[in-house]
Design brief:
The complex is a heterodimer of chains A (296) and B (213).
Chain A: H1 4-22, H2 31-36, E1 47-57, E2 60-77, E3 80-87, E4 90-101, E5 104-110, E6 119-126, E7 129-136, E8 146-153, E9 171-184, E10 190-200, H3 217-220, H4 225-238, H5 246-252, H6 271-290
Antiparallel strand pairs in A: 1-2, 1-8, 2-3, 3-4, 4-5, 5-6, 6-7, 7-8, 9-10
Chain B: H1 5-31, H2 47-52, H3 56-77, H4 80-85, H5 87-114, H6 119-145, H7 149-163, H8 165-180, H9 184-194, H10 197-212
Helix pairs in contact in B: 1-3, 3-5, 5-6, 6-7, 6-9, 7-10, 8-9
The chains are: A alpha+beta (296), B mainly alpha (213).
């Protein structure tokens, strides 16, 4: 009998848990409050501001560490500014203030601070350019605590027919392999040279579109792993996926149409894209396991 | 340099060691298909056939499981000692080899060859390989039954050389990839032929040498 109380509790807990989960927006949106919200200002500044997020070391830009950042301004009122920063697969909310002097809009915005990479953005918008600086809160815990950026406004719209530009070479400079080579000099002595070898993608990466056509196995069989990876990630890039890995970012950060807007694309892929992603992943796995090993 | 008997024994021992090593690798590859699944290893890029042809999976798995047995024959069937002293063992092993090749491995190899990756060149190479393999093995049995052991021996050298293409084609693939990093199907088409044609030539060379003795 003495367990009855706890038993009853045990069975009741899930009901409470369900109840509290069922209506997450309930207390956020009572009809009365909506009307009391302060009016929105300067809505022309809303949208995605996109460009290079450049690490600074000793006051000079370090172009080895550049990523495409998107600062999205989503709400400006007299009380403050709300927005998000999306960079390197981090999608962070931020809040702050706006001060206006003449034609210059100056922002100071803070990320929540519960992530190692959180920090403070200070930037100003003059005309069509957003320029500023970011400083990490925990300067000791991140590699480059100071970044600079100059951004322009770029709308994001999913477009299935976007492709990687053809006039580039897609070479994986992030994952090179050192190769030792022997060569014989003219006088007969033998030297070794150590070279870095990089994987290059084939032209198929800007021909095969995984968002518009359903691939057959035959189309993918002659592709190398890098080709498969790039074709798959191009599908994600069209949806504005922000990539964590530098190895992937190197191919998309320079692409004109690419706007990182989110780090989650759950549920946004079309049926064709889902099928292609599954197929590409299978081929990538096969390439990983078999390409340069004995066996098949 | 004249090869002494000692050199020959060492060479034979080394050859056996190499054969053992690669047979072990083949066993390891075979084990990737245990338990049988429709998406194991190579089948990951063969789903068009797996889903479109009802007979592909049974044929594929028969080929994989049966063919590993063929390799084992090399350890016993060419040993002069076992040939002379253990004729029954030779005969039993021989029948296993012959039945596996004729009834299972070569016919399934032919069907798989018909659907090979890499287009008509690869299809031609793989189907030719399986036909030759089947034919040489059959001729070898018929010769043995007619007690024409000389012809039996030559045909079995050819048959086993073709059996070894399982190893050599994977070795070529590995080598080509290390050296040139070609696209996967380009290398596949090359090894479809390179896997067994040099083996065949080596077999002919060995037969010539034996004949000229």
């Amino acid at each position: 009998m003495k367990y009855t109380g706890s038993l009853v509790l045990f069975f009741l807990i899930p009901f409470f848990a369900c109840n509290s989960k069922k209506k997450p927006g309930e207390d956020r949106k009572p009809a009365a409050l909506v009307q009391e919200l302060p009016p929105e200002l300067h809505t022309e500044l809303y949208g995605n501001w996109v460009g290079d997020f450049v690490s600074m070391s000793d006051g000079t830009p370090d172009y080895e560490d550049v990523a495409r950042i998107n600062i999205r301004l989503s709400r400006i009122t007299a009380e403050g500014v709300e927005g998000r920063s999306v960079v390197k697969g981090n999608d962070r909310p931020m809040k702050g203030t706006l001060a206006i002097t003449g034609s210059q809009y100056s922002f100071v915005m803070d990320e929540p601070g519960n992530d190692r990479h959180d920090g403070r953005f200070e930037f100003s918008i003059v005309g069509d350019t957003l320029k500023g600086k970011w400083k990490a809160y925990k300067t000791a815990e991140v590699k480059h605590p100071v970044k600079e950026f100059t951004l322009v406004k770029k709308p994001f719209r999913y477009n299935a027919s976007l492709m990687l530009p053809e006039d580039w070479e897609y070479v994986d400079y992030e994952n090179g392999r050192t190769q030792t080579e022997l060569y014989t000099n003219e006088d007969g002595t033998v030297d070794t040279s150590i070279n870095k070898v990089y994987r290059a993608a084939s032209e198929e990466v800007y021909r095969l579109n995984g968002s518009t056509e359903e691939f057959s196995e035959k189309q993918l069989k002659n592709l190398k792993k890098l080709d498969l990876e790039i074709i798959r990630n191009t599908i994600f890039a069209r949806h504005g996926y922000s990539f964590k890995s530098k190895g992937v970012r190197q191919f998309f950060d320079q692409v004109d149409w690419y706007v990182p807007v989110t780090n989650s694309i759950d549920g946004v892929l079309t049926e064709v894209e889902q099928k292609n992603v599954a197929l590409l992943k299978r081929f990538e796995k096969y390439a990983q396991d078999n390409y340069d090993t004995f066996g098949r | 340099m004249q090869l002494t008997k000692k050199h020959k024994t060492t060479a034979q021992f080394l050859a056996l060691l190499v054969l053992g090593f690669f047979s072990f690798l083949m066993l390891e590859i075979t084990l990737r298909y245990v338990p049988a699944r429709s998406t194991a290893a190579f089948l990951q890029i063969k789903q068009t056939e797996v889903e479109g042809l009802w007979y592909y999976l049974p044929v594929f798995y028969t080929h994989v499981y049966a063919s590993i047995c063929c390799l084992a024959a090399g350890f016993t069937q060419f040993s002069p000692y076992l040939l002379q002293k253990q004729r029954n063992l030779h005969r039993t092993m021989g029948y296993i080899y012959v039945v596996v090749v004729l009834c299972f491995s070569a016919p399934t190899g032919f069907v798989m060859g018909m659907h090979a990756n890499g287009g008509w060149v690869a299809v031609l190479c793989f189907t030719t390989l399986s036909v030759l393999w089947w034919w040489c093995t059959l001729q070898a049995v018929r010769a043995a039954r007619k007690r024409d052991f000389r012809r039996h021996r030559f045909m079995m050298i050819r048959s086993y050389a073709l059996t070894l293409s399982a190893i050599t084609l994977r070795l070529w693939k590995w080598l080509l990839v290390q050296l040139f990093h070609p696209a996967p199907m380009d290398v596949y088409i090359i090894v479809a032929g390179l896997g067994w044609i040099p083996n065949w030539l080596v077999a002919e060379y060995l037969i010539c040498k034996i004949k000229s003795k």
